[in-house]
C-alpha cells in the first residue's frame, strides 16, 4: 500500500516550527506494517492543490495535515473538493458539533468557523474532540489510473494525533488488509563505519529473501535497520552480530547511555566519572537516562590542572612529567574518581579538544580514556580528526561509554 | 527565486530519525531573504529520481540532502547524473582528499568509498572537512523550460551544516542577486513566552513599514526574528528591548552559554558549577562554547547526598533538616563549589527531576538554584511542570545560566 503525507504550513518551511508529524505518523504506521513512501511540505495557500494532484495520482492513500482552520489561508478543504471534482456542502451534524464546542468554551462562534463544517460531497466527517476543525475522509475513488483514499487532518499535534489513532488507523488497517507479520528491528553499532558493513556483510544480507536493509550513520554510531518477516530479520541479525559482535552495543534500539545504565543496574554497580575535554557531556548523557540516579553518584569536571590535582588527587609530578593528556594522568584521574566516590567503577577522559593546544606529538584530537575498578586500571588512546567541538564531545563521550560498557561485560 | 529541498533517507519516513534539515535550512535561507517553496522526503533508493525530476522542472535551485554515502542505498549522485543527462567521472582531487581523510584516521579506505569521488560531468565538488562525502554543485542548466541549479549535500548534520553555510549560501546569494540591504537580526529572550510578545508589542511592530516579524519558541527561550532594511530592524529592536530589557539575553544571536562565557571572559572571572538534577548539562553547555577552558575550572555533579556532603562539604544536618532540595542546601552546594575551586563565582542546582520523588510540599519539578561569590550568596526557587527529563534539564540549565548572567551584569 502506497501512502503519502502532505504537511501544509508556511511556518514549517520557514523553519520556525519543526515538522514532527511525518516522523510520528511513520512510527505509528510501521506498527501496522505500513510505510510512508513520500512526505511533502508545502506553504499555506494554493500550493496544496498541485501537491494533492501529484500525490493522489500515484498513491493508495494520501494524508494531509493542516489548512482546515477558519482563516483565509486555510484551503485544504477547498483544494480537496477541487481535486476530487466535487462540491463542498455544509455538514449539518458537523455544524452542530462546532456550535456545541464554542458553547462549552462559553464563547460565541465566529462566522469564519462555519466553513469548518463544509465537506466534499461523498466524504465523511471525522470528529475532533480536541479542537474546532473536524477531519475529512474521502473513501477510495479513481485518481488517474488508481484508487486513492484521502484524509484531511488538523495541524495542531494535540488534535491530529488522537484523530489519527482513532479515525485514520482503523480505516487504513481495513483498506490495507494488514499483514501483522511485518516488523522492524534496529541494531546499533559503534567503532565501525557504514562502509565496513558494505565491505563485510552487505552481499550476505542482500541474499535474504524479502529483507529490507538500511543504515543511518551518526557521529560514532551506525544503525542497521532490518525490516521484513521475523524469520528474515533473525537471519539478518545473525549475520550482522557474527560479523561485528563487539561493535554491536544494542539490539533493542537502546542508546549507548541506556545500555550502560541498564548494565550497571543489572549488576548492582555504581559509576563515577572524571571528565576534562568532554566537559560534562558524558555525565549529562548518563543522567538523560531514567534510572541513572540509582547508579551514577559522582561526576567531576576537571578542566583545569589544579582541579585534577586538588579534586581528584592526581600528583602534580605526573602532569609535569607526562602532560595532562597522557595515559598516566588519565589513569590517575579515574583512580581518583573511584577513591573519592566509593563507586564500583570510574571512567576518566582527558584530551585536546582544540582548536588550540595541539603539538606535533599530541595533535588536536588526542584523547586518553581510562577505566578504574577495585581490581584493575587501564587506559586507551584515541585520536579524532577535528570535526568541531560539538562532534568531538559526542564522539569522545561515545568512546568512553563504550569502554565502560565493555568493561562491565568482561 | 524558487527553492525546493529534497531530503532522502528511509529513517526519516520510518520516523526513527526526525527530519530537522528542512527547518534549519529554512531559517538559514531566510537570512538571505530567500524562502523554501517545497520540501520533500523520499526513502533511500530510486524514489529520488522522480522527486528530482519534478523539483528541477519547477525550481530555480534544488537542494538534496543524503544519499551520497558509500553504501548501496546511497544513489543521489547517480540519480543527479541521470536527471542531468551526464556521465559520472572520478574527480581526482576529491579522491586524494578522501584518501587523506582516511589516512588521518589511520584507517584503510574501503573500495566502497571510492564512489564518493564520482562527480557528474560539468558539476563542481564541494569539499567536506567533516566527513567522507564531498558535496556536489551543478550550476544552472535547462530543466524543462527553466534554468535550475542543483546541490547535493551529505545527510549528517555535522557535515551538512558547515557545507551549507560555506559552499551553498554564497552560491545562492550570487544566483539570487540578493538585496544587500535586506537583513535579519535575531533577539533572544528567556523567562517570557511567545504570547507576552503578542500581548505587549505585536501591535507596535506591525506598524513598522516593511518589517517582517517572526517568533520561534524553544524550551525556556523565544527568538524574535526581524527581517527588513536596517532602519526598520533598528526600530523593531528598540521597541522589543524597551518592553523586555531584562529578558533579552542576546541581541547578537548568541546562545545563553556563549553570553555567560563572554561575560566571564570580559570580566576576567572564573566559574565553578555544582549540579544535581541537571546532571552535567550546565557544564556541558558551558564547555560547548569556545573559550570556556579559560573561565570554567571545576564542575561537580553531586547526584547522591553523600556526594553533596563529601565532595562539596554540605553539612549532613542541613540535608536532614531541610531536605536535599532546599534553599539552604542549594546555597551550601554553591559555597562548597566556590571554596573547593577557588573560582570567582559558583552556581548550584538541586531539584526533583521526576518521574518519582515528589511530595505535596515539593512536587516533581521543584528546583533551587543558588549563586555564591566572595561577596554574597543567594538562591531562587522555581517549579517547572514536568515535560520530560530532556526538557526539564534544558529549562533548568537555562534558568541557572540566566541567573549567572544576571549576577555578572549586576
Question: How would you sum up this structure in a few lines?
Answer:
Chain A is α/β, with parallel strands linked by helices. Helices cover 41% and strands 25% of the residues of chain A.
Descriptive report:
The first copy, chain A, is of the alpha/beta class and about 400 residues long. Chain A folds into three domains: about 5-175, MoaB/Mog-like domain (Molybdenum Cofactor Biosythetic Enzyme, Chain A); about 185-250, Alpha-Beta Plaits; about 255-410, CinA-like (Maf protein, Alpha-Beta Complex), CATH 3.90.950. Chain A is about 40% helix and about 25% strand. Chain A has helices at about 10-15, 20-30, 45-60, 75-85, 90-105, 155-175, 195-200, 200-205, 230-245, 255-265, 280-285, 290-295, 305-310, 315-320, 325-340, 390-410; strands spanning about 5-10, 35-40, 60-65, 90, 120, 125, 135-145, 145-155, 185-190, 210-220, 220-230, 250, 270-275, 295-300, 345-350, 365-375, 375-385. In chain A, the strands form four sheets. In chain A, strands 2-1-3-8-7-6 form a six-stranded mixed β-sheet, sandwiched between helices. In chain A, strand 7 (about 135-145) and strand 8 (about 145-155) form a beta hairpin. In chain A, helix 2 runs parallel beside helix 6 (about 155-175). The longest helix of chain A has 21 residues, at about 390-410. Chain A is elongated. At the A-B interface, helix 1, helix 2, strand 2, helix 3 and helix 7 of A face helix 1, helix 2, strand 2, helix 3 and helix 5 of B. Strand 14 (about 295-300) of chain A pairs antiparallel with strand 14 (about 295-300) of chain B.
Keywords summarizing the entry:
homodimer; 410 residues; alpha/beta; Molybdenum Cofactor Biosythetic Enzyme, Chain A; Maf protein; 5-stranded mixed β-sheet; 16 helices; 17 strands
Amino acid at each position: 500500500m502506497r501512502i503519502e503525507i502532505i504537511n501544509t504550513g508556511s511556518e514549517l518551511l520557514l523553519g520556525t516550527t519543526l515538522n514532527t508529524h511525518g516522523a510520528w505518523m511513520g512510527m505509528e504506521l510501521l506498527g501496522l506494517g505500513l510505510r510512508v513512501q513520500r512526505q511533502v511540505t508545502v506553504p499555506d495557500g494554493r500550493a496544496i492543490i498541485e501537491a494533492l494532484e501529484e500525490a493522489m495520482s500515484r498513491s493508495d492513500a494520501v494524508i494531509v495535515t493542516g489548512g482546515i482552520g477558519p482563516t483565509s489561508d486555510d484551503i485544504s478543504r477547498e483544494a480537496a473538493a477541487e481535486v476530487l471534482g466535487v462540491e463542498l456542502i455544509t455538514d449539518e451534524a458537523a455544524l452542530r458539533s462546532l456550535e456545541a464546542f464554542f458553547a462549552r468554551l462559553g464563547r460565541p462562534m465566529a462566522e469564519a468557523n462555519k466553513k469548518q463544517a463544509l465537506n466534499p460531497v461523498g466524504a465523511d466527517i471525522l470528529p475532533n474532540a480536541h479542537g474546532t476543525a473536524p477531519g475529512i475522509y474521502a473513501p477510495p475513488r479513481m485518481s488517474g489510473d488508481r484508487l486513492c483514499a484521502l484524509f484531511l487532518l488538523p495541524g495542531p499535534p494535540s488534535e491530529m494525533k488522537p484523530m489519527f489513532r482513532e479515525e485514520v488507523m482503523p480505516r487504513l488497517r481495513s483498506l490495507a488488509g494488514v499483514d501483522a507479520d511485518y516488523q522492524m528491528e534496529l541494531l546499533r553499532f559503534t567503532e565501525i563505519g557504514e562502509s565496513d558493513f558494505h565491505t563485510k556483510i552487505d552481499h550476505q544480507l542482500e541474499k535474504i529473501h524479502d529483507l529490507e536493509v538500511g543504515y543511518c550513520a551518526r557521529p560514532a554510531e551506525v544503525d542497521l535497520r532490518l525490516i521484513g518477516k521475523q524469520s528474515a530479520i533473525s537471519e539478518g541479525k545473525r549475520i550482522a552480530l557474527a560479523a561485528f559482535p563487539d561493535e554491536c552495543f544494542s539490539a533493542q534500539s537502546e542508546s549507548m547511555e541506556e545500555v550502560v545504565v541498564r548494565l550497571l543496574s543489572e549488576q548492582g554497580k555504581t559509576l563515577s566519572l572524571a571528565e576534562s575535554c568532554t566537559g560534562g557531556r558524558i555525565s549529562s548523557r548518563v543522567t538523560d537516562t531514567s534510572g541513572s540516579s540509582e547508579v551514577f553518584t559522582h561526576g567531576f569536571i576537571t578542566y583545569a590542572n589544579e582541579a585534577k590535582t586538588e579534586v581528584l588527587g592526581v600528583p602534580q609530578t605526573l602532569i609535569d612529567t607526562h602532560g595532562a593528556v597522557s595515559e598516566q594522568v588519565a589513569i590517575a584521574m579515574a583512580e581518583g574518581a573511584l577513591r573519592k566516590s566509593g563507586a564500583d567503577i570510574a571512567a576518566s577522559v582527558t584530551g585536546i579538544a582544540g582548536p588550540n593546544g595541539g603539538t606535533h606529538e599530541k595533535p588536536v584530537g588526542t584523547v586518553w580514556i581510562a577505566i578504574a575498578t577495585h581490581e584493575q586500571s587501564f587506559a586507551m588512546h584515541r585520536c579524532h580528526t577535528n570535526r568541531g567541538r560539538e562532534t568531538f564531545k559526542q564522539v569522545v563521550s561515545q568512546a568512553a561509554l563504550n569502554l565502560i560498557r565493555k568493561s562491565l561485560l568482561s
